[in-house]
Amino acid sequence: MAIKENNKSLLLLMGKRIKYLRKEQGLSLRKLAQRCDVDFSDINKIEKGERNMQMTTLFELAKGLEVHPRDLFDFEGE
Fold first, then answer.
1. How far is 65 from 5, CA to CA, in rounded Å?
2. Is the separation of the CB atoms in 31 and 23 below 8 Å?
3. Does residue 38 contact residue 60 with C-beta atoms inside 8 Å?
4. How far apart (Å, rounded) are the C-alpha atoms in residues 64 and 76?
5. Which of 2, 19, 55, 63 lies 20 to 30 A from 27 at CA?
6. Using CA atoms, how far apart are residues 74 and 23, in angstroms rounded to an integer?
7. Quick one: which of 19, 35, 23, 31 has its CA closest to 75?
8. Do residues 48 and 15 lie in contact, with contact meaning Cβ atoms separated by under 8 Å?
């Protein structure tokens, strides 16, 4: 049970980080989706911590946000 809770916490942290970077750049969900190969509704679910993502999605989001993929893991800035 603790593993599931840890996974959910990680998804929430990642989602908050992606949302923070998107908002910092003044991007809507649709605009970010246009910059990468990820549907805007999937981005919305990722930001809410409701969707786990594949490694390829992580790289697409980093590309769309114009950041290095490792920057998506910088949770301390939030």
1. 28
2. no
3. yes
4. 21
5. 55
6. 16
7. 19
8. yes
- The position carrying tokens 């929430």 is 12
pTM: 0.88
39 Cβ contact partners less than 8 Å away, ≥ 6 residues apart: 33
Nearest to 73 by CA among 5, 20, 17, 24: 17
Q: Tens digit of pLDDT per residue, the chain (78 long)?
A: 565 778 889 999 999 999 999 999 999 999 999 999 999 999 999 999 999 999 999 999 999 999 999 999 998 644
Per the CB < 8 A criterion, the answer to whether 47 and 38 are in contact is: no
Structure tokens at 58: 């992580």
**For the purposes of burial, counting CB atoms within 10 Å of the CB of 36, is it exposed (0-12), middle (13-18) or buried (19 or more)?**
middle
| Nearest residue to 43 via CA among 26, 28, 55, 63 | 28
